[in-house]
Amino acid sequence: MPERLHRHFQWVGVGIYLLALLIVSICFHDNALKPLWMAWGIGTVLFFFGLSYLCNRRWGSDDTKVFRRKVFWWALGIRAAYVGCIIFYYYFQTGVSFEYDAADSWHYHLSACQLSDLARQGQFGEIFSLLRGNTMGFSDQGYILYLTTLYTFFGKNILGPRLLKALMSAYMCVAIYKLASRSLGEKTGRLAAVMAVFLPQFIHYTGTYMKETEMVFLATLALERMDYLVRSKRYTFWNILFPMLLTMLTFGFRTIVGMALIAAFIIYIVFCEKQLLSTKARVITVAIVLVFTLLLLFTPIGWEMWVIYKVNFLTGNAQVEKYQALGMQYAEYANGKYLVPGALTLPLTNLVEVANANQKMMNGTFFVKNYMAFFALWCMVTVIRQHRWRDISLVGAFTLLYALMITLSFAFNSERYHLPVMSGLLIMAAYGMTRFKRKDFMFYYGYDVLLLVAIVVWNYVKLAARGLFF
Fold this sequence. Notes:
By secondary structure, this protein is mainly α. It is built from 21 helices and no strands. The protein has one domain. The radius of gyration is 22 Å and the shape is globular. The termini are far apart.
């Protein structure tokens, strides 16, 4: 991708955000964001677009080993610095070193403290009894057990787990490079890795006490190892077992992540290039994965998959009823079936004061995804044009499956539930950017205009639904 084209993409993104912020702040000035939240948004957008462009240009000619070292150490340094700063920021903002409205984080922390005391006393039966009684299911237990293990061996502190998040997130950037460069080429891999280093979503969640960083790390590493297994043709015991273990662990963080990984791997095996797997090998591999999946159905994981299907997907009107009960207008449109076309783009950024503090703090973070989604969508157009869709069958299948499942569930308007798509979205976006042609600009500018209008309309709807506009 020519340097001037990359620069154009980055600074147009900054311009659209600033224009959207200006329009919303003027039109809805009584409910405009406070300066603190504006500063967070502007700083986030400038940080991502500015540094990802600058470092991609400077690291472009580096040797592969040098490039990977820079990606890892820059990512680790940024995340470790953020962890140190955000702890004090949250402390001065909220009185505790947890994020705003930290209900889930407090639950994880206090539960792990209680369980670590029991572990030191050897009361392991009591641990599992409490887990069954005090969590929302198997997918709510993995992170608590992880924290319990850390607290048992290293003491009850909140800095250590966050620094481990920083380490995981930094290595994940390297895994994104490996996965993208192996399947879509060196240029795509380098651009995806650089954007991952500076991606606000990845950085932000290292400073929280939520489970998202660990979950996305496991999912990304599982995808990378699945791809390596097939493309390297090194069918050793460890190469086969490792992605299976990673996939199993994701069920302990969010069940549908594991479901999407298994489904994506099956799709990948069925549609990968013939030189990678023979027909016989495909049949055997798919059969083994299906047997493995069927065995899961006879475990607590299988029961939870059924419960999640019934609760999250068969009751798709849960959000509609919630908003109707609050007396909000337009509540009937809070349904995934209307939002499926924007599965990769949602949720739209919030630029008015009616949201919670976390959403206001992350308004620039939301926008980065809203903007980068175009290039992920363009990747799908490009690979179909070039007959290379098999190359993204693993990453693309996982990203689209998970995005659609979340959009059609009760959690479509929660940004953190969308986070697992970000690794795949970055890889797809990097490919779309590196294959962009001059004749394609009409679609790019069309999306930019549509995004600007959608953000303004969305913020109007948030106010009008609460009766605050008139």
